[in-house]
Amino acid sequence: MPPKRQRGERAGLTREQVLDTALALVDESGLPALTMRALGARLGVEAMTLYHYVPNKDALIDGMVERLFTSAAREGRPGEDWRTHLCDYAHDLRAALLRHPGILPAVVRPAVTPATLDGVEAGLRVLTAAGFPLARAVDALNALTLFVLGHTAAEVAITPGEADAGSPAWLATLDESRYPLLLRAARTGAGTDDAARFSYAVDALLAGL
């Protein structure tokens, strides 16, 4: 490993490299393990060098959240239906969160970076162009985003083993006279596919909007 740069010395990194490395660190060790010192060690620089790229740890976390949201948000395509736009956004955001589940405890932070706000603005443009009043456009985008965050957080948190409580094998041991529908679902796999459940709920939400 090359020697660490001294305080105040630039490292030839980009902000994106710093943020992506921070995401990788959180994926491996969890959000509590993220410190400027640990991140600097991963990048081969002094912790103080990172302040050339992010002014403080809060800005670092905001930037990490930005990387996830901007991978899902985009401008609307000419002639694109608003439902298609929001459906793609929901699926892309879920995929990004599942790739980086360690950051999930922080994703409820409000959008504050210019790039994250650009993504919100793009979504609002699609909705208002489709005829949504601005207040309803904000509500729609917020409702969809919060659903994606909650569903994905549950997917990550609820991962029982094959015989753990709540698993299909565990459900199969229940009293059939009391829980006939749950037992049938466990035996057939009905409603156990996270991706299918997510798609169904997104479609239902968009139909309601």
From TrEMBL:
Record Pfam families: TetR_C_1, TetR_N
Keyword Signal annotated: no
Record-linked PROSITE patterns: HTH_TETR_2
UniProt xrefs under InterPro entries: Homeodomain-like_sf (IPR009057), HTH-type_TetR-like_transc_reg (IPR050109), HTH_TetR (IPR001647), Repressor_TetR_C (IPR004111), Tet_transcr_reg_TetR (IPR003012), Tet_transcr_reg_TetR-rel_C_sf (IPR036271)
Record key words, sorted: DNA-binding, Repressor, Transcription, Transcription regulation
Domain of life: Bacteria
DNA-binding region of this protein: 35-54
Residue ranges of every copy of the HTH tetR-type domain listed in the record: 12-72
Gene3D superfamilies to which the protein is assigned, alphabetical: Homeodomain-like (1.10.10.60), Tetracycline Repressor, domain 2 (1.10.357.10)
Alphabetical list of PANTHER family matching this protein: HTH-TYPE TRANSCRIPTIONAL REGULATOR RUTR, TRANSCRIPTIONAL REGULATORY PROTEIN
Protein name: TetR/AcrR family transcriptional regulator C-terminal domain-containing protein
Lineage: Bacteria, Bacillati, Actinomycetota, Actinomycetes, Micromonosporales
